[in-house]
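If you are new to this repository, start here. Below is one unmodified record pulled from the training split, so you can see the exact layout before writing a loader.
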Amino acid sequence: MDKVLKPQLNNAVEIKSILKELPYTFRLPDNRQVNTLLVYLPCYEDGKISLTKFFECVKNGILQNFVFSCKEIEKKLGMHSTTAMEELFNKALRKISKHTAQGELGELILFTLLDVYLNAPKLLSKVSMKTVPTMPVFGADAVHGQMVDGEFRVYLGESKLYQNFNSAATKAASSMVSAKGKFDVEFDLLDSHMDFPNLDSEFEEKILDVLNPYVSTENLKSIHSPCFIGFTQPDVIYENDAHYIEAYKEIASHYVYDFFKKVEDKGLEAEEVTLLMLPFTCVSELVDEFISYIGIYK
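And here is the target side for that same chain:
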C-alpha cells in the first residue's frame, strides 16, 4: 500500500503557530532514541500563556472536526449553507458536557496533534456516536492512521490531562496496554464506521485486511500507541521564550525517562510508543476556561 492518508484539518500552519513544537531529541540511558513531540503555547500576556487564540481555533473548526466524521462535515458544507460550521459547532456542544470536559479537551488536543504533526487523520469519530453527553468515550481515546514506510499504521491514542505528569504517565501506561489488548473492539468499529478524507472502498478493504485480528496476530505489528499528557507546570513558564524553552527541555528530560520506563514495565516496546506533551499554568483553570469560552452548558 502506497497511498497517503489526507489529514482532516486544513489549517495546519495556523495551528502550528498556536500549538508550537519544541524540536528536541531524547534518548534513554541506554542511548535508544524515543519518539516524542514537545508542544507549548507561546506567552502573550505578561509572561502568561494566552489560551484565547487556542480556544478561538477550537471554536472555528477543531471542535467540529474532532467530534464529527469528515463525511458528515463535507455533507454539511456541501449544502452551501453559510451557517454550516456554526450548526456543526452547536451540534458538537450537545455531544459534550461539563462532566466530561476535562477528558474531552485532552482528547481534542490529542486529535489535533496527531492530525497536524503526525499527519495521521482520525479513522473513527467516537464522540459523535455518544447518546449520553455526560458519559465518556470507552476504549482508545483516539483511533488514527497513516502510511509509514509503505505499511499501514493504526494509532490507538491515549490522553491524560492531569495536574501531575508522573501520575498521568502511570495511568496512561496501563490504559495503552488495555487498549491494545482490546483492539478487536476497535476493529469492529472500524469495520462499520471507518472514515477519513480520501478513503475509497479499495483502500478501506486493504486496511481492514491488514488490521483484522480475527485472521492472524500479525495486526499487532501495525498498532502504535501515541500518548498525550497535558500537565500543570507553572515553573517552566517565563516571559522570555528562550528561558521557557530551556526550562521545558530540562523538565521534559526527567519526564520522558519516567514515562518510557513505566511503558516498558507494562510490557510495551518503547519504539511502538510516542509521547506528546504540553505544559499549562494550571490544568483545572484550563478546563474551567475551556468550558466558559466554548460555552459548554450541559
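Two things worth knowing about this chain: The first helix runs from residue 12 to 18. DSSP finds ten helices and nine strands in the chain.
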